[in-house]
Design a protein that fits this description.
elongated; 6 helices; single chain; 434 Repressor (Amino-terminal Domain)
Length: 118
């Protein structure tokens, strides 16, 4: 039987709270287990926490982001998909549901998994 030649690429990030006087001891114990101390990075927070204005409209935000990533305007995306520009605008603002059919169309032109729009 062949042995596995590659190690898994799974990484985890741990965040703990505890007594300050035990911090060095905890870091030392984790280093013995193979963890690296990346330090406290207050500039790194989950995007949903940083952009609360997008909460509840993730599909629309993904649509606008995917469109920008591909360098397309709403009008250009409208011409590619056959979906009226005003509908795309309403989808991006969360005023209109995207739906599975449209999600698959957007996926084709924006190179994003269609489930990101649902």
């Amino acid at each position: 039987m062949l042995d596995h030649t590659k190690k898994p690429h799974t990484k985890v990030t741990l965040l703990f709270e505890g007594p300050a006087d035990k911090q060095k001891e905890a870091i030392a114990a984790l280093k013995k287990l193979g963890f690296n101390n990346t330090g406290n990075n207050p500039s790194s927070i989950p995007w949903r926490e940083a952009f609360k204005e997008f909460e509840g409209n993730e599909p629309g935000t993904n649509l606008a982001g995917g469109r920008h990533k591909e360098g397309l305007t709403q009008i250009q995306l409208s011409k590619l998909t056959g979906i009226p520009q005003r509908h795309i605008s309403e989808m991006e603002r969360g005023k209109r549901p995207i739906g599975k059919k449209n999600a698959k169309l957007f996926s084709k032109f924006l190179n994003i998994d269609y489930r990101m729009f649902l």
